[in-house]
Amino acid sequence: MDRDKAERLVEQYVDGALAPVQAREFERCMADDESLREAVEDARLIRSELPKLVEDAPDEGYWRRLAGKLVLRERRPPVRWKTRLAFGGAVACIAFLVGVSLSYRAELRRLREAAALPADGTTAASLTKYFEPSERTSRDRAVFDSLEATYPERMEWVGRSNGHAFLGLSDTPAPAAGAGRTLLAIETVVLRTTAGGKREVVLRPRVVALDGAETAIEVPATTGRPEAVIRTALNVRDGRVGGSVEFACAAEPSGTALASTGAVSLALGEPARVLSLNLGEAEYALLLRSSVLGRR
Amino acid sequence: MRETIEPRAGNDTELIVLCRRGDEAGYRGLVARYGPMLWRIARRITGSREDAEDLSQEAFVRAFRSLRRFRGRSKFSTYLCSIVVNLSLNHLRRKQRRPETSAGSAGTRPAEERMSARTGTEAFEFKEALEKELDALSPELRASIVLTAIEGMSHREAAGVLGCAESTVSWRVHEARKQLRRRLKGWRGGH
Q1: Given CB atoms, is B53 within the 8 Å cutoff of chain A?
Q2: pLDDT score of B190
Q3: Regarding predicted confidence, which is higher, A254 or B1?
Q4: Do B177 and A38 touch (CB under 8 A)?
Q5: Which end of chain B is more exposed for a tag (fewer CB within 10 A), N or C?
Q6: Count of A–B CB contacts within 8 Å?
Q7: Taking the complete model, does pTM exceed 0.90, yes or no?
C-alpha cells in the first residue's frame, strides 16, 4: 500500500471500516510512516471531539415562550378563500377602472394634440373616426363631443354611408397657390359591418404622396381573417385623389369565393368621399379623404 | 381541557393529533421535544445563535402550517429536521450571495484569516479550532457531518433529512472529516 492510498484510508481505518487484510496492510504502512501515524491520531481526535461540539440550546423557558407564540399564531383565524377572492376581485376591478380611465385620458390627449392645427391649415390632421350618430354614449362620441366643444368651427360630418357616418376635423383647404407640386396626406378607412351588426375598422393606412404621381400607391392588407383580403390602390393625378378597393373572401360556410370591387375619387379641397360595397353578408365602407401638407 | 398531557409525554402521533384538534398541549409537546434539536442543527450549520433561533422558529411555523398534510410516511423528527436543514442551507446561500453582510460567516472567511486562526493562536483550544474549521466547510459537507457526527443520526436517516442518497451522505461525511483533519494538522501536539 503506497502512502497516498493509505492517506485516503485514514478515516475508514479509524472507523474500523477496512477489511481485516486491508487493515493489516494499513498498519504495516503506518509502522514505517510517522506522518501517517499522526494523521490517524488526528482523525481519532476529530472523531472523538465532534460529538462534543453539541452546544447547549436555549433553556426550557425559551421553548415554552416560543410554543406560546406559535399557538397564538396557529389560532389566528385563517383568511378564507372567499375573502381572498373578494379582495382579489376588488383589486382587479380597481385596476381595470384605473386602466380605462388612463386609456381614455391618453386618447383624449392624443386627439387634442392632433387637433391643435396651425391656423393656415397646412398640417394634416387624421382625425377621421367612424360613428354611429345615435351612439351618444360611445367613448369616441364623448371624445368628439369634447373636441367639438374645443374646435366648434372645425368639426363636421365628412361622409355618410348606409346609416353610419364618419366625423372629422374640417382641415381640407383648397391647394395653396405657388410653385411646386402639392404634397398630400391621403387617409383611407375601411369599415366592415357584419350581418350581426358588428362593425370594425379593418384597414386604416395613411400615405403621403405628391400630386401628379404617375404610379399607383398600393396599400395591401389583410383583414385579420386569413381568408379575406382587402387591397386598396390610391393615385394622385391632376388635382384629384383616386382610390379603388378590392375585397375578396370565402363565404361561410359554403366556401364560395366572393369578390367585389369599387372606385371612388375626390378633388383636392373636397372633404371626403365614402364608397359602400357588399360582400356576402358583410358590408364594407371605404372612406377616402386627403389633406394638403404643403408644396414641394 | 388544556394540558391534558405533559409536554414531553405522548408519542409524536398523539401530539400531532392534538395539534390538528387545535390543542395547545400538542404544540407545546412538539416544541419541547424537538426545539432544542432543531436549534442545535441550525446553530451548527449557520454558525450563529441568533440565526438558529429564527430558523428553528420558522421550521415550526412551516411544519405546523402543513401539519394536516403530514401523512406520516417519514418520522416527524425527520420531517422537521429536513425543514430546518433546508432553511439553514438557504439562509447560508443567501448570506454568501451578500458578502457585505456575511463578514461573520466562517464559510466565507478569507483564507488568510483562517490561516492566522489556525497557525497564530496556540492558545485556542482544539475544540474551538475544530468549531472554526467546521464552520469553514461547504454547507453540504457541514450539514452532513452535523447530522451524523454531532446529532448522532445514521447515514440513512441523514440521507432522508437531506433528500439525497445514503452513499452521498457517506461520501460527504468522509470528505468533511478528511478536510477537517488536513486543516487541523499540527493541532494535536498543542492540545
Answers
A1: yes
A2: 47
A3: A254
A4: no
A5: N
A6: 97
A7: no
Provide the CATH number for the domain formed by A3-75 in this structure. Answer: 1.10.10
Residue A119: band (very low, low, confident or very high) from pLDDT cuts 50, 70, 90: very low
State the helix-helix crossing angle for B49-65 and A60-75, rounded to 10 degrees: 40
**Which residue is listed with cell 386598396?**
A232
CB pair distance less than 8 Å for A53 and B57: no
Where is B164: in which H helix or E strand? none
Pick from A71-80, A101-110, A250-259, B46-55: least confident: A250-259
3-class SS at A255? coil
Instruction: Report the residue from A11, A39, A50 with minimal CB separation from B150.
Output: A50
Q: Is the pLDDT of residue A199 over 90?
A: no
Pick the CATH number of B1-108 from 1.20.1260.10, 1.10.1740.10, 2.40.240.50, 3.30.420.40: 1.10.1740.10
Give B-chain residues touching A38 at CB under 8 angstroms. 185, 188
Whats the size of chain B, residue-wise? 191
- In this structure, which long-range contacts are made by residues A103-107, counting pairs with CB atoms below 8 Å and at least 24 apart in sequence? A104/A139, A107/A139, A107/A143
Question: 3-state DSSP call for residue B74?
Answer: coil
The residues facing A275 across adjacent strands are A286
Q: A145 in contact with B at a CB cutoff of 8 Å? A: no
Residue B35 and residue A57: Cβ atoms within 8 Å? Answer: yes
What topology does CATH give the domain B109-191?
Arc Repressor Mutant, subunit A (1.10.10)
Grid cell, residue A239, equals: 388635382
The predicted-structure confidence for B10-69, as pLDDT tens digits, reads as follows 688 888 888 888 788 888 888 888 899 999 999 988 888 889 999 999 998 888 888 877
Q: Is the ipTM of this complex over 0.85?
A: no
Q: Which residues of A touch B39 (CB under 8 A)?
A: 57-58
Domain edges within chain A: 3-75, 117-295
Q: Where in chain B is CATH 1.10.1740.10?
A: 1-108
Q: What is the pLDDT at residue A70?
A: 82
Tell me, what's the pLDDT at A133? 45
- The Cα of A15 is separated from the nearest Cα of chain B by a number of Å equal to 10
CA A108 – CA A104 distance, rounded (Å): 6
CA distance B100 to chain A (A): 27
In terms of CA atoms, which chain A residue is nearest residue B187? A42
